[in-house]
Amino acid sequence: MRKTPLAAPLGIGLIGTGFMGRAHALAFRNVSAAFELPVQLRLSALADADSTRAEQCAQAWGFDRSHGDWQQLIDDPHVQIVAITTPNHLHYPMAMAAIAAGKAVYCEKPLAVSLEQATEMYRSAKAAGVVTQVGYNYQHNPMIGLARDMIEAGELGEIISFQGEFSEDFMGDPASPWSWRCEAGHAGGALADLGSHLLAMARHLLGDVEAVCADSNTVHRQRPATSGSRELRPIAVDDQTHALLRFASGARGTFSSSWLKHGYKNHLSFEISGTKGTLAFDQERLNELRLYRPGATGRDGFQTLLAGPSLPGYAAFCPAPGHQLGYNELKALEVHALIQAVCGQGQRGPDFEEAWQIERLAAAIRLSAREQRWVGSGEI
Asked: What mean pLDDT is reported for the chain?
């Protein structure tokens, strides 16, 4: 039976017009075409510090109005959901202002640039009773849902190991210029930028991590101030971080994040092994899972599982298997989960509380790398 949408449209306010801002805009436009939503969406307002760009993007992306000041967007009475796609150091003031205004908050990852900020954001949102979601969109992949179902059903047996890596190469060239990602107070290095996704995935699939032993380093300690400049700026964030993980379940794991690894563009990957088999995944082939279960001698080997319409979410975009979902479809699935949560139909994506737990784990990794010792989750 077709559900009757709620009468009043839900107003969307988007802050930021970069790559992630465009991804959010596409997701909010696409989700209504892909799903029967319990409410109509209206792209009410878009904000950017560059008011000219804000106006241009608002017109191109279908928003009703633009603002050159993000606080004006939060104060806009037509906005009920505030989507934050700005550099990391702005997440905290924007989210706190939106929470104070009683509005739902959809914030990109990582949640904040410090555990203290993340803690205040989580506690304030909980006290205010507002819906929150954080952009760990890779978890919304139907194949990740399948992996989790298989693990929880015991198809791999008792889980004994996790090997995870998230590598890209966009900072691999030492001549690549300094950006806000290189500023410790604005970002947090490869661990925050890439590794947070991997930590989120590990928790999503295998639960709590109770202890870590980590190492991190900065390979390129200076970068040009701008492209081609002879002026060099110091770098104070990690280029790569590695860690051993001990899960509360008893499983052991490894973690690696790097933005220097040549040849990799979106290599969020893991292998999860149990007493009955192994699952392997690579985000660069996001429509596939590789499954190994022991078979007859000479006939055993990895089987490739392809995404298809039997998996929740996939059929909203395509009725045939093997036709491939992409990054923007994952964002639309993430927005679908957000809208369901706002409409009281359950939380299906990482909220501020889960993002805070991810930040606690990242803080443990940083402390371990700094002090060169095992750090338990209870210390953070």
From this structure: 95
